[in-house]
Structure formats: structure tokens, C-alpha cells
Automatic annotation (TrEMBL), chains A, B:
Its cofactor is pyridoxal 5'-phosphate. The lineage of its organism: Bacteria, Bacillati, Bacillota, Bacilli, Bacillales. It comes from Thermoactinomyces intermedius. The keyword Transferase applies. This is Alanine--glyoxylate aminotransferase family protein. GO terms for biological process: glycine biosynthetic process, by transamination of glyoxylate.
């Protein structure tokens, strides 16, 4: 049995919260309309800009990531409009479900789960659906560990149409390069509980000027998720239209400091390295990686266990008995894959440990495992051998 | 200048968070789909039942109170339906705005701010609008400190129509008696940052069987705020459809323990007493109470300063320099009233202190104040003189 509370949260979010951030959140609660709260909101929004790669003011919503995905839909589209949704996994599928819920004509580009969408596939699809007003993309598809080539995909959209480019960046923004302005992304969404190292409860959106124009003309009703209200309150009063989750904002300020101290380029290369270590270790254990090298996400790695003789859910349970939490598969991948999160407050030694735990667990399940293969491979990456 | 972080948050929410609750929220983050999270969600929902006075399972949304107000609208009504909204202040007005946003026929019963809605007024109004499918009420109107007689108003609705009774209980549920099942309330809404002594970020709804039937037949699209999805996930898997704000749930579990230890009847009588002390002190200072005795809320007291010679906003600023935060007026009451919150983690001595600070501040603003009048009156109530 693991020591009490000494567990290893290696799921692709929520991610571990650094002690500094925990401490920041225990500051006494302040009024959401106080000067202190306004300073906090204004400062956090300002300091989120480089994370998104934008000159726009990121907006802060009290809600989970899905609230911001829905905001991106209801603010830009109305019933009868058409939209293209690229579905590479469960979160692309969620975007599609939101679009359908609101009576928007859905053109769904389904990519086999575990693969990325290639720009050519998207280009062909857009030619067939020239009426689409928005194209929805997933940056990191959390359910498969695939990082879609968002910069190229956004460029493809811009070459073929005037559609807005709307990106779910929930499980990677803050850990991977993001230059939404340069890439031509119109709305980028993320959440607090992933690379930003906070508990769940905040969602963030950055919106291009082009998208603001569409939003201004869009008649779809929205209230809590009315982005124009968020923009107006932020620009005019440095605040949010509805009560801000102030304790999480205190945490956000601190987690932004951590990212800034490390340097955002270093943060990205750390995640790149964590990915490489994870993949090297998994390969050395004789396990099968789901995503290919070119499209593997720096934030989460999926292991395809569909051909293994052992039961994935029994394996995850056994791993938990050592204090390690990894994620299972979603929808049709349930029982077929497991996923190791390596984003946010995570270093190389955290990965070394989970790799060792995977080997120990498989051995305990009666699999023939040569101990040390995964950690050796991990160390080789660390040593740049 | 007050000592750092040693301030007195006496606004009607967010309210101070008890140290036990702060500590509970610093527990390591857990996966939102873990067994631990499910236990937490199930247990919190179960223990919220007596707070709402219901046999239904309260639902937990990651969002601020307004998200739950909107959920109550979009789940029960569709464009073309009619609704009655009783507006006794800024939060009744918010309900009306949400109703209008969604193209629902709004029948607005405006009551002068500072007054409660009387059952006879509602009865007359309902007779004029027999087609209303829902009637929206505010339990405590935060902007004025009026506690509307919700039990009587709900009974009135039931006598006159089949409309659903939907109540905003954000700034009082958890501090005042609430028997929604017995009263015939169909949807009761509250938030985390008021009587429940948590930071902002959670909203709660309890829904009657009658309302569930209406919801099942309602075609208005909704996704993040789809209450049927919350109910299904809670009943079938003890979880939420979207990532739960797990750290706040850890806090909620602890704050429910505090309420249970004190005993919910004692919690209600404490708030009643805090109201009486506040009102006695304010009267003794020669200031004017906004709400009458019969309809004053146990959670917030508004002081009508519209006839005073001093400037309310200057007064609030000066009071802040002593470390005391009270709220100003909203909308047309801005600059005319101030509001003292006395809910949640608040005791008699907290009120004695703020009353003394009000006197000291008024004296510093050049008003002729006899020191000790307010605290004397407060102590007399404490001593049951």
C-alpha cells in the first residue's frame, strides 16, 4: 500500500498542483469586485498572452474545459450554419456533439483514433464543404495522445476558406508551442487542470479580431458563456461578468510565475523530453505506442495494449495499489489502451518512476518482464546516449 | 493600515473560508474519474440534501451561481414559452435577463427594491399571466438584503397554476431554513461562496420530479448545463459529466462537516442572531435600515445612506483602510446604500467589530458620532437584554 496521500497522479489531467500553487490558493478569500480581484484578473489575463501566443486578452471563465468549448460554439455559430469538426478522438467527438446539440450543420471529418489529421485530408474535406463557417480542431487529442499539426491545419483552412479556426488546446496549451496569432487560429481554448498546474475549475479562451466580428453578428443566445460580456468586463473594469473563482486565480498567478521562471521555451523542451523518455521506456518494456513519433503529444502518451494477453483495467488497478494513477481508454478504446500523463508539474524522475512501476506491475501480473529495461532506456535519453 | 491579509470580508459573498476548509482543499489533487472523486461527489450530494430540504440528489456544477441560474432556465423553457419573473433587486433582474436572452416571453413583476414580494401581489400577477410555465423567485435578494417569503410564494404559485417554481437561493441557502420539497419548490439553486463557506467556483441545483418531467420534454439545446447529463452521471456513476472541481469538493466535504457539527438548526439561529445584532447596532448608530424587520435577510443587511450627508463610496474606501470590506449598492442603488454580509464563517464578534469600525469611520469622516452606541446595542442583543 502506498503511504497516505503519497500517490503519483500520472493521468492527462487533472495534474499535480505544485506546493507553491497550493499555498497561494490558501490566501484569504477576497471580494470578486474588489480592487485586489481586478488586479489579479487583469494580471493573469496579461500573463497568459505569451502562453497562447496572442496579442488578445485571454478571457477567464469559471467552469471546466467543456464550458469553454461550448462558448466557442455558441458565440460563433447559429442554427443552420455549417461547421467542419475534425474528430481524432473523444474530444473532437465532444466538439461535434456540441455542434450538433445547437442545430448546426455538422460535417465531421473522422480520422482513425491514434492518427493525426494531415493537412491534405483537411484540404480535401474543406473542398467538399465550402459553406463551413468554422473549422474545429483538437491540438492535443487527450484520448489518444496525438498532437495534431495545428499550425499547418490552420494554414490549410486559411488557404481554402474564410472559416474561423477554433482549437481545443485544453490538454497541451502551456506545455507546447502556441502561436495562435501567427498560425491564424481564431479561438484557442484551454483549462486550468492540465499544463497550467491548477485544480480544475477555470477555462480560458483567446479570441482573434476576426472572430470577434463574427461573434458580434451572431444571434445564437448565450448568457453565462457570452464572450462579449467577458471581453467588455475585462476591458472596461478588469473583471469578469460573473463571480470569478478567486482562489484559483491566486493559484494561476503563482503557476504563471513558475512557468515564467523556468522560461516558456524551457517548459516546452522539458515536455518534449518527458515525451521522449516515456516513449523510450515504454518501447524498451516491449509495449506498443499508439501514436507515431511524428504526432506524439509532449503531454500524454497512449500505450496500445489491445494485443496484450493481460487485462488493461486489472493492470491499472494493480498499478494503483502502488500509488500510480494512469488513465484508461475512452469510448471504444476502453480496456484496450492506457495513458500516461506527463504534463505540468512533472519531471524526468516522475517518468522514470512510473516506467519502473509499469514493469513491476506487469511482472506481478505474471508477465515475463526483464527488470530495468524501461528505466535503462529512460536514463539513456536523460544522458543523451 | 491593517496587518497584511488580516482583513474583514463582510460582503455578501464571497465569504471567508474557514481554516479547516482551506486545509482540506490543499489535499493532493485527484483524478476526476477516480473512485476517490466519485465517493466525494456522491457523499457531497447526499449531505447537501438536508441543506436544500429535499429527497432529490443535488447536482454539482463547476461554475459560478449564474451558470446554475441559466441552467434552470434553459432546461425548463424554450423560445415562445412564457415565464413570470419576480424582480425584487439585481438578482431577480438577472433571472429576467436570462429569460429574455433565450426568447422566452417575460412577464416581469417588479417590486420596489428593498421590499419583498407579498403573496397577494404574486397571486394577482399570476391571474394576469395564466400561461406562464415557470415562476422565478429570489429567496434572499443579495442586492437589497430582503428575504422573500419563498414558502408562501411557492404555495401561492401552486394554488394558481401548474407553473414550475424556480428559486435563486444563492445568497442564503445553507444559512436559512429551506424545505424545498415541502414548500413545493421545483428547482433550488445555490453557490459555493456564500453560506457554504467555500471559494467561488461551484454551483448547486436540486430539482423536483415534476421539474424533471418538464426537463425531459424541453427541446431547448444545452450542453455544459444539460441537467439530465448531470443527473445520469450522478445516478449511474457517482460522478459529473464534465471535469469536477475536485479541490473545491474537498472543501465542500469539510464545510458540510462544520455545518453538521454545529447542527443546521443552530446554524440558522446563529444567522438570525447575526441579523438582529447587525440591525440593532446599525439603528443605534443612527443609520437607516433598508429592509423592514419582517423581510430582513439573516445573511446580509443593507443600510440606506441615500439621505446621509456623507458619500457612501468614500465611506467604504475609508472603511477598507481599516481592513473592512463591505459591499456597495448595485445598479441604481450604487452610491446610495452599503451592505454588510453576515453569513457563513461569521460570528457575533465579527459583527461587533464591523459595527465599531463603521462608527470610527463615520467619525473620521467628520460625522458627529457618539462612540459605543452600536456596540452597546449589539451587546444588549447578545445578552438578551
Amino acid at each position: 500500500m502506498p503511504l497516505k496521500d503519497k500517490y503519483h497522479l500520472r493521468i492527462p489531467g487533472p495534474t499535480p498542483v505544485p506546493p507553491q500553487v497550493q499555498r497561494a490558493m490558501t490566501q484569504p478569500v477576497i471580494g470578486h469586485r474588489s480592487r485586489l480581484a481586478s488586479q489579479l484578473i487583469q494580471e493573469c489575463s496579461e500573463r497568459l498572452k505569451p502562453i497562447f501566443g496572442t496579442r488578445q486578452q485571454p478571457l477567464i471563465v469559471a467552469g471546466s474545459g467543456t464550458s469553454a468549448l461550448e462558448a466557442a460554439v455558441v458565440n460563433t455559430l447559429s442554427p443552420g450554419d455549417e461547421a467542419v469538426v475534425v474528430v481524432t478522438g473523444a474530444f473532437g467527438d465532444r466538439f461535434a456533439k456540441i455542434v450538433e446539440t445547437y442545430g448546426i450543420g455538422l460535417h465531421r471529418l473522422d480520422i482513425p483514433w491514434g492518427k493525426a489529421c494531415e493537412p491534405e485530408q483537411l484540404a480535401d474535406f474543406l473542398k467538399k464543404h465550402p459553406g463551413a463557417k468554422s473549422v474545429f480542431l483538437t491540438y492535443c487529442e487527450t484520448s489518444t495522445g496525438v498532437l495534431n499539426p495545428v499550425a499547418e491545419l490552420a494554414r490549410t483552412v486559411r488557404q481554402h476558406s474564410d472559416a474561423l479556426v477554433i482549437v481545443d488546446g485544453v490538454s497541451c496549451v502551456g506545455a507546447v508551442p502556441c502561436q495562435m496569432d501567427d498560425w491564424g487560429v481564431d479561438i484557442m481554448v484551454t483549462g486550468s487542470q492540465k499544463a497550467l498546474m491548477l485544480p480544475p475549475g477555470l477555462a480560458f479562451l483567446a479570441v482573434s479580431e476576426r472572430a470577434w466580428q463574427v461573434i458580434a453578428g451572431n444571434r445564437q443566445p448565450r448568457f453565462y458563456l457570452n464572450l462579449e460580456a467577458y471581453r467588455r468586463k475585462l476591458e472596461q473594469e478588469d473583471t469578469t461578468p460573473f463571480t470569478a473563482a478567486v482562489s484559483l486565480l491566486y493559484g494561476l498567478k503563482e503557476s504563471l510565475s513558475l512557468l515564467e521562471e523556468e522560461g516558456f521555451e524551457n517548459v516546452c523542451s522539458r515536455h518534449e523530453r518527458l515525451k521522449n523518455i516515456t516513449r523510450a521506456g515504454i518501447r524498451a518494456s516491449g509495449l506498443t505506442l499508439m501514436a507515431d513519433d511524428r504526432h506524439a503529444s509532449p503531454t500524454v502518451t497512449s500505450i496500445d495494449a489491445s494485443q496484450e494477453k493481460w487485462d488493461v483495467e486489472a493492470f491499472r488497478k494493480k498499478l494503483q495499489s502502488h500509488g500510480f494513477y494512469v488513465a484508461g481508454g475512452q469510448q471504444h478504446l476502453k480496456g484496450k489502451i492506457f495513458r500516461i500523463g506527463h504534463m505540468g508539474y512533472c519531471d524526468e524522475w516522475d517518468i522514470l518512476t512510473v516506467l519502473a512501476a509499469v514493469e513491476v506491475t506487469l511482472s506481478q501480473m505474471g508477465q515475463s518482464v526483464e527488470p530495468g529495461m524501461a528505466t535503462k532506456a529512460a536514463q539513456e535519453v536523460m544522458m543523451d546516449v
